[in-house]
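Weekly structure sync, notes
Attendees: PL (lead), two postdocs, one rotation student
Agenda item 3: pending single-chain targets
PL asked that the sequence for the first pending target be pasted directly into the notes so everyone works from the same version. It is reproduced below exactly as submitted, 97 residues in total.
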Amino acid sequence: MFRISCPFCGERDENEFVFGGQAHIARPQPAEQVADREWAEYLFYRDNPKGLHFERWQHRYGCRQWFNVVRHTVSHEIAAVYRMDEARPDIDPEEMV
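Predicted structure, written out during the meeting:
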């Protein structure tokens, strides 16, 4: 188990949160002109790195707010937590090795 620092409630155990997938995925536009293959890639294809990953999480058993987490997928070390309305942080993956 690891701990996540909710930007609204503070640090809590991971079992209070739910993983929401990869962060910063842009929906293809305009929807009526998007090809089937592009929709499939948007819906089903995600990065699965061994290292830093930008993720969405929800504090399900707390404030119920969504936010972003930068987490190392091997060590589960959290490099950053930021609200959905904040800019994506510039993090050097070499610092997390």
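Discussion points:
- The chain is about 10% helix and 35% strand.
- Strands lie at 3-6, 10-13, 18-22, 52-58, 66-72, 78-83.
Action: rotation student to compare against the earlier draft before next sync.
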